[in-house]
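User: Just a sanity check before I run the rest of the batch. Below are the C-alpha cells for the first item. I only need the designed sequence back.
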C-alpha cells in the first residue's frame, strides 16, 4: 500500500481546491439566482459563470503573488495589500464588463455609473478572500507548530526515559559483577553458571532498552534469572516466591523496573540480615488497575540519598513509559517492606 493511500481521507483532500471551487461555484450560482428572470437572455448564463471563472483565476494569481512576495507567512498588512486588491477589483470589473459588452443581455450599454458599484463589490470580495486565506494560513501554521512542539516533547520524554534507563543498568551490572567476583573464590561451577545467567540478563537489558515498555512475562523471566544468581550467593538466606494471576502476562511495564525493585529487596532485606529475608513478588488485578508488589521481610529504614534517587528514577520511568496515572510507593506493613506499583488497566 502506498503512503498516500494509507493516509486518512481528510489528509489526502486538497482543501484549497475544494474551497476555491466551492466558493466561486457558489458565487456563480448566486449570480444566476439573482438574475433568474434574465437567464433566457443571450449570454446571461455564460456571463454568470464567466464572472465566477475569472474571479477564481485572479484569486489563484493573487495567491501565487502572495507566496512569491512572502506575504502569506505573516499577519495581513492592509497597507501593502490595498493596492493589489484594488487592481484585482479593477481587472475583474473590466473582464465582466467585456463579457456584458460582447453579449449585451441588457441591450446597449448606456452610462457607466454601475461600474462604481461593481468596483465596491469586487473590492469587498477580494478583501474577504484575502482575509480568509490569511486566516487559513495562520491556522495551518499554528497546527504545524503545535505538531512540531508535540514531536519535540515526545522526543524529550524518550531521551529522558533512555537517560533514566542508563542510570539504572550500570548499578545492576556493578552489583552482579561484585557477586560473581566473590563467588569465584568459593565455587567455580556456581560462578560459571552465574556468568551464563548474567549473559542472559545483559542480553535482555540491551534489547529491552530500545523499548519504552515490555510484557510483564519478559520482565519476570529476568527477575527469575536475577534471583537464581543471588540464590547461588546467599543460598538459604534468600527465600523467594513469585505469584502472578493468570492473564497478566502481557501487561506492559518499563524494562528492568520490576527487576530493580527485586534488587532493592535483596539489597536491603537479605544483605542486611544475618538470617536473610523472604522476598515475595505478586501481581494481581484490581478494579481498573494492575497491582504489582515486591515485598521483603524487615523494617523500612531511613534510606540513603542513592536509594531515594533510585526510587525517584523508577517513578519517572514509570510515568514516562506508562502514563501519569501509574504510581510507585514504598511502605511498611506487618513486618514487610512493600514496593507497590499500580498500573492503570487499558480500557
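Assistant: Here's the designed sequence for the first item:
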Amino acid at each position: 500500500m502506498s503512503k498516500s493511500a494509507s493516509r486518512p481521507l481528510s489528509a489526502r483532500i486538497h482543501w484549497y481546491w475544494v474551497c476555491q471551487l466551492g466558493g466561486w461555484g457558489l458565487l456563480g450560482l448566486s449570480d444566476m439566482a439573482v438574475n433568474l428572470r434574465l437567464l433566457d437572455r443571450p449570454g446571461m448564463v455564460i456571463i454568470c459563470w464567466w464572472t465566477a471563472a475569472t474571479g477564481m483565476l485572479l484569486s489563484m494569481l493573487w495567491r501565487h503573488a502572495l507566496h512569491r512576495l512572502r506575504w502569506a507567512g505573516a499577519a495581513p498588512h492592509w497597507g501593502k495589500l490595498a493596492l493589489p486588491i484594488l487592481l484585482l477589483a479593477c481587472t475583474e470589473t473590466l473582464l465582466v464588463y467585456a463579457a456584458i459588452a460582447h453579449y449585451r443581455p441588457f441591450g446597449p450599454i448606456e452610462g457607466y455609473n454601475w461600474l462604481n458599484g461593481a468596483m465596491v463589490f469586487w473590492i469587498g470580495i477580494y478583501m474577504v478572500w484575502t482575509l480568509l486565506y490569511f486566516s487559513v494560513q495562520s491556522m495551518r501554521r499554528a497546527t504545524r507548530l503545535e505538531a512540531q512542539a508535540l514531536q519535540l516533547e515526545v522526543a524529550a520524554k524518550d531521551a529522558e526515559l533512555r537517560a533514566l534507563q542508563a542510570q539504572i543498568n550500570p548499578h545492576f551490572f556493578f552489583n552482579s559483577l561484585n557477586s560473581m567476583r566473590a563467588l569465584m573464590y568459593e565455587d567455580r561451577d556456581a560462578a560459571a553458571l552465574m556468568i551464563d545467567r548474567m549473559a542472559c540478563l545483559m542480553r535482555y537489558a540491551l534489547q529491552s532498552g530500545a523499548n519504552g515498555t515490555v510484557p510483564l512475562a519478559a520482565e519476570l523471566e529476568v527477575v527469575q534469572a536475577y534471583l537464581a544468581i543471588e540464590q547461588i550467593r546467599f543460598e538459604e538466606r534468600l527465600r523467594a516466591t513469585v505469584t502472578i494471576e493468570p492473564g497478566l502476562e502481557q501487561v506492559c511495564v518499563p524494562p528492568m523496573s520490576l527487576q530493580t525493585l527485586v534488587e532493592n529487596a535483596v539489597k536491603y532485606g537479605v544483605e542486611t540480615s544475618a538470617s536473610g529475608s523472604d522476598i515475595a513478588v505478586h501481581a494481581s488485578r484490581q478494579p481498573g488497575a494492575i497491582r504489582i508488589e515486591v515485598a521483603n521481610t524487615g523494617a523500612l529504614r531511613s534510606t540513603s540519598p542513592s536509594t531515594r534517587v533510585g526510587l525517584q528514577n523508577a517513578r519517572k520511568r514509570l510515568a514516562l513509559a506508562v502514563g501519569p496515572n501509574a504510581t510507585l510507593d514504598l511502605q511498611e506493613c506487618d513486618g514487610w517492606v512493600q514496593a507497590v506499583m499500580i498500573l492503570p488497566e487499558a480500557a
